[in-house]
Amino acid sequence: MSISSRFSVAIHILCLLAINEEKATNTSEYLAGSVNTNPVVIRKVMSMLKGAGLVHVRAGVAGAELAKTLAEITLLDVYKAVNVVAENDLFSSHEHPNPECIVGRNIQQSLTKQFSAAQKAMEHSLEIVTLADVVQDILADNV
Amino acid sequence: MSISSRFSVAIHILCLLAINEEKATNTSEYLAGSVNTNPVVIRKVMSMLKGAGLVHVRAGVAGAELAKTLAEITLLDVYKAVNVVAENDLFSSHEHPNPECIVGRNIQQSLTKQFSAAQKAMEHSLEIVTLADVVQDILADNV
DNA sequence: GTTACATGTAACAAAACAAATTACAGGTCG
DNA sequence: CGACCTGTAATTTGTTTTGTTACATGTAAC
Q: How far apart are CA B123 and CA B7, in angstroms?
């Protein structure tokens, strides 16, 4: 299956916070309107972004704002903030292979090694892109 | 969520076919015993591996064998054979963002670009490892 | 302080999916 | 023919994602 859209929703929100400068209008309801989802979904994602120190939100007060500049936030930061893939868990392995078979006994360690490397390669690709890059694409508005 | 364990099952099977030289004993039931799953799961995976030209299996006749050497089969070949992640579909995007918002209107194209790059990085990591590498780890049998 | 309106979260429902399993059709070969 | 295998459709079970309802709590204007 695919990695949760919570990641793309989070990126969407953060870009919107950067572009829409009137802080007070960035309510969960307003953001939900742009993302096209439920305000509760937004608040859940926002809660995770807050926990990671990427945004400032206060209970009871309308609007959120970025806690860092766009160039300081990589896609990997967002990815980790919303916890869409646990460490060494991009690939799932079949459980309890037969320990009496040499393959069953040893394959897990080899798979873990290779799968971990592949996951890290993907994550590194996210690390070299910042939200500033994404916002630049958005502002080009080539539609 | 994680990528289907069908991938790890496929790798397991292929390694076993290479190590267990007595072709006729490699029935779906025997393989299921090492992987610890149902024989039908094995046959389904085997069917996909056959479609990709990685194994030789014949209906009605016991046993399967590799169609190539271990060094000729990369993990990417296996990954593609069992179809665990569709092209540009490792990450899912939220659907139908609001086209009246500049972010909603443009974010998909930017996300597609970045997500595609990350997926390709992961896949390239799988491409540089062959089953020969995995079997080497298994035969070390360091338990 | 109370009112209006926001966020924070728990709890639940619906839809989508993976994996195991059952059942059976069809192939191969002694 | 009969034993045994592969091929595959259909079903079930368990899990996960996403959306939704409901309500507690926080804030600030008045």
A: 13
Contacts of B102 by beta carbon, 8 Å cutoff, 6+ apart: A19, A138, A139, A141
Rounded percentage of chain A residues whose pLDDT exceeds 70: 99
Do the domain assignments include residue B1?
Answer: no
The residues with which A61 forms a beta bridge, in sequence order, are A58
Mean per-residue pLDDT of chain B = 93
Would A1 be classed as within a structural domain? Answer: no
User: Which one of A94, A111, A134, A135 would you mutate to disrupt binding with B, by most B Cβ within 10 Å of its Cβ?
Assistant: A94
User: With b meaning 16 or more CB within 10 Å and e meaning fewer, what string describes B49-66?
Assistant: bbebebbebeeeeebbeb
Helix (H) or strand (E) holding A66: strand A61-66
CA of A139 to C1' of D29 (A): 36
Length of chain B, in residues = 143
For B29-80, give the secondary structure using H, E and C: HHHHHHHCCCHHHHHHHHHHHHHCCCEEEECCEEEEEECCCHHHCEHHHHHH
Specify if A68 maps to a domain. yes
B54: domain CATH number is: 1.10.10.10
Residue B130 φ then ψ, to 5°? -110, 170
Total structural domains in chain B? 1
Per-residue pLDDT tens digits for A84-127: 999 999 999 998 999 999 999 999 999 999 999 999 999 999 99
pLDDT above 90 covers a percentage of chain A that reads: 86
| Å between CA of A141 and C1' of D21 | 37
User: Which residues form the domain of B34?
Assistant: 6-140
